[in-house]
Please model this.
Amino acid sequence: MIALKEEWILMIRGLVFDMDGLIFDSEKVVQRTWYDVGKQIGIPDMGDYILHTLGFNKVKEKAYFREILGEEFPYELFAERTKERFYEIVDQEGMSVKPGARELIRYGKEHGLKLAVATSSREGYAVKLFQDAGIYDYFDGFVFGNMVTHSKPDPEIYQKACAAINLPAEACMAFEDAPAGVRSASAAGLTVVMVPDLVQPEEDVRNLAFQVCSSLTEAIPLVEQLRQGK
Model:
């Protein structure tokens, strides 16, 4: 059992999850599509840019590409082709649920915790992933990228997620895989557990997190500990 610092002694009543790269192993699929389509449009290293855009919604992603690659970058064409390629891969190979995700979600539900999702992805795409995985009905609230004005690391999405399950931020634990998401949840006042996917955290991000875990499986005892305020 982890020895909790005084500031971590609290009662957790809600769990708020990021989605891509945290519940679903989708970031790696997205990166594949960026490499594939990037080759088609003459930018073979396109997949490398995902490391800088994790947690961005489409508006912020577009602005990033235009800034880095120039105003002539064909974002709409790129977005359409990567979307088509994404669903080709998922149709052929399926979408994996990350280790420990189902178990943690079930644990939360069985112990009466409120569950929410705070994802930068758009509603239609996200809902389909949850429904196909059979875990959509476990959640009490969803906030999608098209429902916020400001993308992560802005705290807006986590503030709205806590409101969606009628809990104050200090009663919620957030689960994130990317630095922008950790910053977002921390700024909103949630206790944050990071499970890195494509990007390992720098020291400043680690310092914002209650714990950095290798998988969501490791998070269950942390939730148990904080849920009981021990």
In short: The chain has a mean pLDDT of 92. The chain has two domains: 6-25+96-227, 27-93. The longest strand covers residues 114-118.
